[in-house]
Amino acid sequence: MVGNENSDRGRLVHNAIDAVSARGLVTVKTWATADRAYCSVGDTGAGMSEEVRRQALAPFFTTKGPKSQGLGLSMSYGTVQRLGGTLDIESQPGSGTTVTISLPISAAAPATAVAPSPPLTEPPCVSPRRILVIDDDPDVRETTVDLLATEGHLVSQAATGAEGVSMFRADRHDVVFTDLGMPGMTGWDVAEAIKALEPATPIVLLTGWGDEIVQAARQRGSVDQVAVKPLDLAAVAPLIAAAPMRQRG
């Protein structure tokens, strides 16, 4: 899970850089205890009020205006939680912000505790699938791609619905993740177009909305699962594992 940790640290540094002025300072520290590893990212920016600090980990909460999706900290928090860690925010107005990640260190088993195993013909996990991610927001798209890639899947990406359908037509992917709200061709349109080409292809609709979208998906029948942003890998893992792997030359 090193890839996830590095990606989350990168988001925290990016957030810290956004928070400081031209003469501000960003400090990254790492340390460890007997059973935990730590990384903190601090900045000398404007800091947060207590109300903002309490909401900072909530999906889609942002103070950066309409161009921000408000997903960076919440995605980092979700990843850290899945790894059994914690993410803490210390901040005061005018005194900057420090975000600290703590992750458990796995104890290495004694060499004599595990008997040698014969070589495996297949890894004891879900075989990599070819996955297509379609989203017009580059930050959300890259984050979703990174999450799926850390599980070993071969992930392609498209910035528009039309581009995604064209890519699927040229190279039938095993699973498709598509954003709902995209200009020109919505997620519903993408799902219907792909199902027309390959009815058995599982399609996951990514959205920031809730139960009403789930109900609509059931009525339309072109979407196999609705996933709320930020993506929770555990929620979509069974669908990916059940997706048929197409034979390729």
Can you give a write-up of this model?
The chain is an alpha/beta fold. The chain has two domains: 2-104, Histidine kinase-like ATPase, C-terminal domain (Heat Shock Protein 90, 2-Layer Sandwich), CATH 3.30.565.10; 130-242, Rossmann fold (3-Layer(aba) Sandwich). It is 35% helix and 21% strand. The chain contains eight helices and nine strands. The chain has helices spanning 2-19, 50-55, 72-82, 138-149, 161-170, 187-197, 211-220, 233-242, and strands at residues 26-32, 36-43, 86-91, 97-104, 130-134, 154-158, 175-179, 203-207, 225-228. The strands form two sheets. A five-stranded parallel sheet has the order 6-5-7-8-9, sandwiched between helices. Helix 5 packs parallel to helix 6 (187-197). The radius of gyration is 21 Å and the shape is elongated. Residues 1-7, 65-71 and 120-124 have low confidence and may be disordered.
Give structural attributes.
249 residues; Rossmann fold; five-stranded parallel sheet; four-stranded antiparallel sheet; 9 strands; elongated
> Given the structure, what is the number of helices?
8
Beta-strand residue percentage: 15-25%
Taking Cα atoms only, what radius of gyration do you get, to the nearest Å? 21 Å
- CATH-level-4 superfamily name of the largest domain: Response regulator
CATH architecture designation of the largest domain: 3-Layer(aba) Sandwich
Helix content: 25-40%
Give the total of domains: 2
**What is the N-to-C order of secondary-structure elements (H for helix, E for strand)?**
HEEHHEEEHEHEHEHEH
The helix-and-strand class reads: alpha/beta
Question: Within the CATH hierarchy, at the fold level, what is the topology of the largest domain?
Answer: Rossmann fold
Q: Would you identify the regions where 5 or more consecutive residues have pLDDT less than 50?
A: 1-7, 65-71, 120-124
- Rounded mean pLDDT is 79
